[in-house]
């Protein structure tokens, strides 16, 4: 046990507490089993370490953190670890990177072990994190009735302003934004120019590590994409090396013209994929991994069997990196909008306009000269406009949609 505490305590103690993500206060930390999923690089580890740090400030050594890809877990099982920790009075066990856990026997993976630990040791609260691609994973242990699931997205524009030390604001609800955007935007922009910060966020502000080495940010994003396709997806879906190559080619094809209106037959021919179901499964992998966002007009049914009507790169930082410096302004604007609204709202494609939110609000996205011609006769229709600080009536500054979480 000394080895576990020697590993855990220094990591927990050095985490900074001055900035916490939007999800931190939304989690019910009293739940006995908490799942935190999210794309690689969005800050899941930091979130867990911050909570462990605060718990240990209240009661020393009541929280332990361990990454399941650490060599310690090659000789310890989750169940054995849980038993020992509970005997030592530990109340909270934080398990990071569960999809990288090395199983100790066939047919008995991390989900089965967590299920058994949950059932056997009721005095131990377990929090685990993993790649968002775990949504496609069919584990050996059924955790659905036990876990409280949460998803962590990348930084909102509001969070970026706070983390950068520029300004701190509370998030607001979509209804409040639509009703009072003119007054709200005036209050936000009275002390500083917001447009330059918004442009910087679109290029390099979605991931919390943007401050570490700005010069290598784009190359780091490309490395993350490679790890997602070569490591994270194969870890939960058992795809072959050849399939991983096809996923890369699929991403490249979509990125070249995103937002992409898919021609599934052409894609199958280019990638040498035998049937449409397999291609849709590949698209589903990339969407679950939060590399792509697929939109349709319908929200019901088995999504993997639906042909997406439009495909976006998941966030504007990915778009800039994949476009190799070519600035597709219209694409970036729409990508930003769907990345921010998609966190807490349902987005589909309308018959008119660019996006339908929660089945009610229609949005057309564009530059400051964009007109409302396409959505003029629609109720609850709004323009999200770039390059303006303040709006009027249904003309809303695009940057304001980055304040919703």
Question: Which short descriptors sum up this protein?
Answer:
single chain; 405 residues; alpha/beta; 5-stranded parallel beta sheet; 5-stranded mixed beta sheet; 13 helices; 39% helix; globular
Low-confidence stretches: none
Overall geometry comes to: globular
Mean of pLDDT = 93
Widest sheet: strand ordering: 2-3-4-1-5
Order of helices and strands: HEHEHEHEEHHHHHHHEEHHEEEEE
Work out the strand percent: 5-15%
**Total count of strands:** 12
Kindly provide the radius of gyration, computed on alpha-carbon positions and rounded to a whole number of angstroms.
22 Å
Q: For the report, how would you describe the main beta sheet?
A: 5 strands, parallel
Fraction of residues in helix: 25-40%
Spatial separation of the terminal alpha carbons: 40 Å
H/I helix tally: 13
| Structural class determined from secondary elements | alpha/beta
Describe the model:
There is one protein chain. The chain is of the alpha/beta class and 405 residues long. It contains 13 helices and twelve strands. It has helices spanning 2-13, 44-58, 78-87, 110-120, 157-163, 174-189, 195-204, 217-237, 241-255, 264-271, 276-288, 316-322, 329-341; strands spanning 33-38, 63-67, 92-96, 125-131, 148-152, 292-295, 310-313, 347-348, 355-357, 361-366, 381-385, 395-397. The strands form three sheets. Strands 2-3-4-1-5 form a five-stranded parallel β-sheet. Strands 8-9-10-11-12 form a five-stranded mixed β-sheet. Strand 8 and strand 9 form a beta hairpin. Helix 3 (78-87) packs parallel to helix 4 and helix 7 (195-204) packs across helix 12 (316-322). It is globular. The model has no long low-confidence stretch (mean pLDDT 93).
